[in-house]
Design a protein that fits this description.
Arc Repressor Mutant, subunit A, Umud Fragment, subunit A, 2 domains
């Protein structure tokens, strides 16, 4: 599933190509989506390209090709195409044992496990474009699933290493749109970027706090951050 802005931009590019035969300029995209700068358009185009919706044609200015549309608009049209989630690389820290984890591959654990969807990769570092697309499913211990809807995300980055969350781990998330201070959450920033951070409040603002002194706490107005879920468990493969 695309974010609202990604969806709007994809349709704008598609309609312009149908009408004029050429894609819109970055200035036209910025105005159509009411964004403050063209950097936001660059992020959206990169996200759409990484998800396989568009392609930038080499050696040509303003050259974009729409490869597919969301199934909600063109059902069945994209069955042959496959999504490849985006990746953000992070340096690896030393890995202490997490306080709550599940080592995949243990027969006793698997026998009692339940299955939840993996919804892509999330940055434990600088926020990246939000990913809301099921890639596969995994089995988790039933005691991690204590009511409500759950999903998993693969972690890329090192900003949460002091919370025992490392590059390559898989985090189990309970869907929720509210959080208490101190909880580790999936935060959606400006409806475009997702990150895994500790939730704090700074007066009327929201602070997304890393668990790595190399990263600064990021402060946002309350209307810019949406809670997408809370960390309830962690899976690590050895």
């Amino acid at each position: 599933m695309l974010t609202r802005k990604q969806h709007e931009l994809l349709l704008f590019i598609h309609e312009r190509l149908k009408e004029a035969g050429i894609p819109p300029s970055f200035d036209e995209m910025k105005e159509a989506l009411d964004l403050a700068s063209k950097s936001g358009i660059h992020r959206l185009i990169t996200a759409l390209e990484e998800r396989g919706f568009i392609r930038r044609l080499p050696n040509r200015a303003r050259a974009l090709e729409v490869l597919r549309l969301p199934d909600s608009i063109a059902p069945g049209l994209n069955a042959a195409r496959k999504f490849s989630p985006s990746v953000i690389e992070g340096s690896l820290g030393r890995k202490p044992e997490p306080s709550r984890s599940f080592s995949a591959g243990n027969d006793d654990d698997v026998a009692a496990a339940v299955t939840i969807p993996v919804m892509g990769r999330i940055a434990a570092g600088v926020p990246i474009d939000a990913i809301q697309h099921k890639t596969h499913s995994i089995s988790v211990p039933p005691d991690m699933i204590m009511g409500g809807e759950h999903y998993a995300l693969e972690v890329k980055g090192d900003s949460m290493i002091e919370a025992g969350i490392f590059d390559g781990d898989t985090v189990v998330i309970r869907s929720s749109n509210i959080a208490n201070p101190g909880e580790i959450i999936v935060a959606l920033v400006d409806d475009e970027e997702a990150t895994l951070k500790r939730f704090r409040r700074k007066g009327a603002s929201i602070a997304l706090e890393a668990a790595n002194p190399a990263y600064e706490t990021r402060i946002f107005g309350p209307d810019r951050v949406k809670v997408q879920g809370k960390l309830v468990g962690l899976i690590r493969r050895y």
